[in-house]
Amino acid sequence: MTAQPGIDTPDARGRTGLDRAGRDLAGNPDVVVREVELLATAWHVLRRTTYDYRGRDGGWSRQQRETYDRGDGATVLLYDPARRTVLLTRQFRYPVYVNGHPDGMFVETAAGLLDGDDPAAAIRREASEELGVVIGELEPVFAVWTSPGSVTERVHCFAAPYSAASRVGPGGGLADDGEDIAAVELPFATALERIETGEIADAKTIMLLQWAALRGPFRQAAPAER
Length: 226
Known about the structure:
226 residues; alpha+beta; 3-stranded antiparallel beta sheet; globular
């Protein structure tokens, strides 16, 4: 049998055993994993998993799902409480361009994959690379799966204050990774309006902006009860 990269021999990123993911899951007695097939490992990992599932009626059925595993990520909403602004990124995103976005230039919070770091360290790295910001106080907000039907990634969402003094680097992203990232500073009220107009259409960014309005740094005091 020919050795398959990513299973028996290292793939282009030095990984083996990529077909083992999910085989040892035991948290749900109504799910029994039967087979894990490795479909692609060009950069991230595409798998097809066959499993038996026991439904609410007690009957078992055999199902298959394809999952795309790109690792977990982190993102941060940078806000200036004094000037009531937020600092976002703007960059070309081909997946949204090919699926209906007018020009693919996407406005979103600074973000990136963990790449072996813990979430806090990863987002400090990304904020520095993308926006030139050195983060001081960092607040964990929530961790979410944004496409649970097919993508395994969980995104760790943070918020952090920034100021002119904390913008110490050039930002722009890593040229070696093909990144060409511009900083977009907006009044917080304008950022909320751009959700309504569709100019901000990124899920993690919308969630963090709405959190900032409802429970975060730009929360309005509730009117006193009469």
